[in-house]
Specification:
alpha+beta; disordered C terminus; Jelly Rolls; single chain; 3 helices; six-stranded antiparallel β-sheet; 10 strands
Length: 191
Amino acid sequence: MIEILQNLIPEVFASINRGDEWDSLIVNRRKPWTYRVFRKFGDYRVCLHAFDPCSTEEPHPHPHPWPGAFLMLKGSYVHRIGFSQDLQSEPVFHFREIVRPYSTYEIVDRRTWHTVQPLERTYTIMVNGDPWENAHANVRTTKGKDLDKMQQNELREHLNEFLVLLNNYMLATSTGFCQRFINGASEAKDP
């Protein structure tokens, strides 16, 4: 899934730049509060998330209904990972890490649970595939929750923030860009 996410980034960037249609949801009935802008790219859904910070005891532990990959673009969060023995049991959490910009991870097993505790305003991009036929029994989705959408100006600000963040990410991680910059810098020094 991480490779799919990496391959979609230029297309996502171009879509934002063109002003293509994106939908939004404000997930504010559990912590952390999440501002989600999303759309489909072929067989995959891409979500541009902004998270508000929350305290240690507030993050909502959850499994996902589909495989997904995640890229941190700005901010940081405490990420806890757990695992259920089967598709009905509660998880045992075994792992805790701090996720920082340009870190990636994936969830590709339906028994995996996680929590996200933003330490500051945090921005991520997520790509997910089709839902699993037999997801974990405790999966909760946003469908039918009657959640608010962003106002048009909020949506535009959100997309503009991601335009900058994705541009910075592509520049920072592009070998070709770095090589051109190094060559350009050395050529400037040698008349």
